[in-house]
Protein backbone atom coordinates (compact mmCIF):
# COMPACT_ATOMS: atom_id res chain seq x y z
CA UNK A 1 0.00 0.00 0.00
CA UNK A 2 1.29 3.44 -0.92
CA UNK A 3 2.28 5.87 1.80
CA UNK A 4 -0.51 8.34 2.65
CA UNK A 5 0.67 11.91 2.04
CA UNK A 6 -0.63 15.34 3.07
CA UNK A 7 -2.04 13.93 6.30
CA UNK A 8 -1.18 16.87 8.56
CA UNK A 9 -1.48 19.86 6.28
CA UNK A 10 -4.90 19.82 4.66
CA UNK A 11 -8.41 21.11 5.34
CA UNK A 12 -11.46 19.10 4.32
CA UNK A 13 -13.90 21.36 2.43
CA UNK A 14 -16.23 18.51 1.44
CA UNK A 15 -20.01 18.59 1.79
CA UNK A 16 -22.98 16.34 0.97
CA UNK A 17 -22.67 17.11 -2.72
CA UNK A 18 -19.01 16.45 -3.26
CA UNK A 19 -15.44 16.44 -2.05
CA UNK A 20 -12.83 19.16 -2.02
CA UNK A 21 -9.60 19.58 -0.09
CA UNK A 22 -7.26 22.47 0.63
CA UNK A 23 -3.60 21.54 0.97
CA UNK A 24 -1.15 23.79 2.83
CA UNK A 25 2.57 24.45 2.63
CA UNK A 26 4.27 23.09 5.77
CA UNK A 27 6.44 26.19 6.05
CA UNK A 28 4.43 29.29 5.09
CA UNK A 29 0.91 27.81 5.10
CA UNK A 30 0.07 29.00 1.59
CA UNK A 31 -2.48 26.67 0.08
CA UNK A 32 -3.89 24.99 -3.01
CA UNK A 33 -7.56 24.07 -3.42
CA UNK A 34 -8.22 20.77 -5.19
CA UNK A 35 -10.89 20.57 -7.92
CA UNK A 36 -14.40 19.77 -6.68
CA UNK A 37 -15.31 16.09 -7.08
CA UNK A 38 -19.06 15.49 -7.16
CA UNK A 39 -20.55 12.87 -4.84
CA UNK A 40 -23.12 11.13 -7.04
CA UNK A 41 -24.88 9.46 -4.14
CA UNK A 42 -25.14 12.74 -2.27
CA UNK A 43 -26.53 14.55 -5.30
CA UNK A 44 -29.09 11.78 -5.92
CA UNK A 45 -30.20 11.80 -2.30
CA UNK A 46 -30.51 15.58 -2.34
CA UNK A 47 -32.62 15.45 -5.49
CA UNK A 48 -34.91 12.77 -4.02
CA UNK A 49 -35.28 14.74 -0.77
CA UNK A 50 -36.21 17.90 -2.67
CA UNK A 51 -38.70 15.98 -4.81
CA UNK A 52 -40.05 14.09 -1.81
CA UNK A 53 -40.75 17.29 0.09
CA UNK A 54 -42.85 18.43 -2.87
CA UNK A 55 -44.59 15.19 -3.89
CA UNK A 56 -44.35 13.12 -0.69
CA UNK A 57 -45.16 9.41 -0.62
CA UNK A 58 -42.75 6.98 -2.23
CA UNK A 59 -40.31 9.71 -3.28
CA UNK A 60 -40.00 10.84 0.32
CA UNK A 61 -39.23 7.28 1.44
CA UNK A 62 -36.73 6.95 -1.40
CA UNK A 63 -34.95 10.06 -0.17
CA UNK A 64 -34.36 8.54 3.25
CA UNK A 65 -33.17 5.33 1.58
CA UNK A 66 -30.77 7.42 -0.49
CA UNK A 67 -29.40 9.05 2.66
CA UNK A 68 -28.80 5.61 4.17
CA UNK A 69 -26.95 4.37 1.08
CA UNK A 70 -24.93 7.59 0.88
CA UNK A 71 -23.84 7.21 4.51
CA UNK A 72 -22.86 3.61 3.85
CA UNK A 73 -20.71 4.60 0.86
CA UNK A 74 -19.38 7.86 2.27
CA UNK A 75 -16.17 6.29 3.60
CA UNK A 76 -14.94 4.69 0.38
CA UNK A 77 -16.10 7.63 -1.73
CA UNK A 78 -14.23 10.06 0.52
CA UNK A 79 -11.09 7.92 0.46
CA UNK A 80 -11.13 7.73 -3.33
CA UNK A 81 -11.71 11.48 -3.65
CA UNK A 82 -8.94 12.24 -1.16
CA UNK A 83 -6.48 9.98 -2.98
CA UNK A 84 -7.32 11.68 -6.27
CA UNK A 85 -6.96 15.15 -4.70
CA UNK A 86 -3.58 14.21 -3.20
CA UNK A 87 -2.23 13.09 -6.57
CA UNK A 88 -3.39 16.37 -8.09
CA UNK A 89 -2.12 18.44 -5.14
CA UNK A 90 1.38 16.93 -5.24
CA UNK A 91 1.93 18.73 -8.52
CA UNK A 92 1.74 22.08 -6.68
CA UNK A 93 4.20 21.28 -3.86
CA UNK A 94 7.78 20.12 -3.45
CA UNK A 95 8.73 17.27 -1.12
CA UNK A 96 11.91 17.84 0.89
CA UNK A 97 13.68 14.51 1.23
CA UNK A 98 15.72 15.76 4.19
CA UNK A 99 12.94 16.87 6.57
CA UNK A 100 9.93 15.30 4.84
CA UNK A 101 7.96 18.54 4.58
CA UNK A 102 5.79 19.49 1.62
CA UNK A 103 6.41 23.13 0.71
CA UNK A 104 5.30 25.56 -1.97
CA UNK A 105 7.86 26.10 -4.76
CA UNK A 106 7.14 29.83 -4.97
CA UNK A 107 8.41 30.87 -1.54
CA UNK A 108 9.80 27.93 0.42
CA UNK A 109 11.80 25.80 -2.01
CA UNK A 110 15.49 26.17 -2.91
CA UNK A 111 15.53 24.92 -6.49
CA UNK A 112 19.32 25.02 -6.81
CA UNK A 113 19.74 22.80 -3.74
CA UNK A 114 16.74 20.54 -4.26
CA UNK A 115 15.67 21.04 -0.63
CA UNK A 116 13.25 23.26 1.27
CA UNK A 117 14.62 26.61 2.45
CA UNK A 118 14.41 25.39 6.03
CA UNK A 119 17.08 22.79 5.25
CA UNK A 120 18.96 24.77 2.59
CA UNK A 121 18.34 28.53 2.98
CA UNK A 122 18.72 30.79 -0.01
CA UNK A 123 22.04 32.52 0.70
CA UNK A 124 21.12 35.71 -1.15
CA UNK A 125 17.92 36.05 0.90
CA UNK A 126 19.79 35.24 4.11
CA UNK A 127 22.46 37.82 3.31
CA UNK A 128 19.83 40.50 2.73
CA UNK A 129 18.09 39.57 6.00
CA UNK A 130 21.35 39.63 7.97
CA UNK A 131 22.38 42.98 6.49
CA UNK A 132 19.02 44.51 7.39
CA UNK A 133 19.18 43.14 10.94
CA UNK A 134 22.75 44.35 11.50
CA UNK A 135 21.83 47.77 10.08
CA UNK A 136 19.08 48.10 12.68
CA UNK A 137 21.46 47.08 15.48
CA UNK A 138 24.06 49.60 14.29
CA UNK A 139 21.43 52.32 14.11
CA UNK A 140 20.56 51.66 17.78
CA UNK A 141 24.25 51.82 18.75
CA UNK A 142 24.77 55.03 16.79
CA UNK A 143 21.70 56.63 18.34
CA UNK A 144 22.97 55.81 21.85
CA UNK A 145 26.25 57.61 21.14
CA UNK A 146 24.46 60.86 20.22
CA UNK A 147 22.91 63.13 22.84
CA UNK A 148 19.27 63.03 21.78
CA UNK A 149 18.17 65.55 24.45
CA UNK A 150 20.94 68.11 24.09
CA UNK A 151 18.46 70.95 23.78
CA UNK A 152 16.38 69.84 26.78
CA UNK A 153 16.78 72.22 29.75
CA UNK A 154 16.04 70.15 32.83
CA UNK A 155 16.29 73.19 35.11
CA UNK A 156 13.62 74.95 33.07
CA UNK A 157 11.35 71.91 33.37
CA UNK A 158 11.97 71.71 37.09
CA UNK A 159 11.13 75.42 37.49
CA UNK A 160 8.02 75.03 35.38
CA UNK A 161 6.90 72.08 37.45
CA UNK A 162 7.37 74.10 40.62
CA UNK A 163 5.62 77.18 39.21
CA UNK A 164 2.16 76.28 40.41
CA UNK A 165 -0.07 77.94 42.94
CA UNK A 166 0.20 76.10 46.30
CA UNK A 167 -3.51 76.74 46.91
CA UNK A 168 -5.30 75.96 43.60
CA UNK A 169 -2.46 74.37 41.56
CA UNK A 170 -2.99 76.84 38.71
CA UNK A 171 0.04 77.45 36.47
CA UNK A 172 1.73 80.76 37.25
CA UNK A 173 4.25 82.74 35.25
CA UNK A 174 5.57 84.86 38.11
CA UNK A 175 4.40 87.52 40.50
CA UNK A 176 3.53 87.38 44.19
CA UNK A 177 -0.16 86.43 43.91
CA UNK A 178 -2.05 83.75 41.95
CA UNK A 179 -3.97 85.13 38.98
CA UNK A 180 -6.66 82.47 39.49
CA UNK A 181 -7.43 82.52 43.22
CA UNK A 182 -5.64 85.71 44.31
CA UNK A 183 -3.80 84.06 47.17
CA UNK A 184 -0.10 84.68 47.82
CA UNK A 185 2.20 82.32 45.95
CA UNK A 186 4.78 82.21 48.74
CA UNK A 187 3.43 80.70 51.94
CA UNK A 188 3.96 82.93 54.94
CA UNK A 189 6.54 81.71 57.38
CA UNK A 190 5.21 80.52 60.71
CA UNK A 191 7.28 80.54 63.86
CA UNK A 192 6.71 78.77 67.16
CA UNK A 193 5.28 81.12 69.76
CA UNK A 194 7.24 79.35 72.46
CA UNK A 195 10.79 78.88 71.09
CA UNK A 196 10.65 80.94 67.88
CA UNK A 197 11.72 78.08 65.60
CA UNK A 198 10.36 78.13 62.04
CA UNK A 199 7.55 75.63 61.56
CA UNK A 200 6.54 73.81 58.39
CA UNK A 201 3.44 75.25 56.70
CA UNK A 202 1.19 72.28 57.59
CA UNK A 203 2.76 71.38 60.93
CA UNK A 204 0.41 71.28 63.93
CA UNK A 205 3.19 71.16 66.51
CA UNK A 206 6.65 72.67 66.75
CA UNK A 207 9.36 70.24 65.78
CA UNK A 208 11.78 71.75 68.29
CA UNK A 209 9.80 72.09 71.50
CA UNK A 210 6.48 70.36 70.79
CA UNK A 211 4.33 73.43 71.38
CA UNK A 212 1.00 73.38 69.51
CA UNK A 213 0.76 75.73 66.58
CA UNK A 214 -0.69 79.06 67.66
CA UNK A 215 -0.39 77.93 71.28
Descriptive report:
With 215 residues, the chain is an alpha+beta fold. Among the domains are: 10-92, no CATH class; 163-215, no CATH class. Helix content is 37%, strand content 12%. It has helices spanning 40-55, 58-89, 123-144, 154-162; strands at 10-12, 18-19, 21-24, 31-33, 37-38, 94-95, 102-103, 109-110, 115-116, 190-191, 198-199. The strands form 5 sheets. A 3-stranded antiparallel beta sheet has the order 1-3-4, with helices on one face. Strands 2-5 form a two-stranded antiparallel sheet. A two-stranded antiparallel sheet has the order 6-7. A hairpin with a 6-residue loop joins strand 3 (21-24) and strand 4 (31-33).
Brief description of this entry?
By secondary structure, the chain is an alpha+beta fold. It contains 4 helices and 11 strands. Among the domains are: 10-92, no CATH class; 163-215, no CATH class.
User: How much helicity do the residues have?
Assistant: 25-40%
Which structural class matches the secondary elements? alpha+beta
Report the major sheet.
3 strands, antiparallel
Strand content: 5-15%
- Helices, by number, come to 4
Question: What is the alpha-carbon Rg in Å?
Answer: 41 Å
Mean pLDDT: 79
Order of helices and strands: EEEEEHHEEEEHHEE
The parts where pLDDT drops under 50 for at least 5 residues are 44-70
Q: Give the CA-CA distance, first to last residue.
A: 106 Å
User: Within the largest sheet, what's the order of strands?
Assistant: 1-3-4
Tell the overall outline. elongated
How many extended strands? 11
Amino acid sequence: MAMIQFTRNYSDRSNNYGFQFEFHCDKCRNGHMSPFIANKMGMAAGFLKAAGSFFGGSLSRAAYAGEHVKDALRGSAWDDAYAEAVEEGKKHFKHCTRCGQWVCPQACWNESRGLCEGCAPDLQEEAAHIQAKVSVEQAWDKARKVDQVESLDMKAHRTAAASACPHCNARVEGGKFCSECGKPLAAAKVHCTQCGAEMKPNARFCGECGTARGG
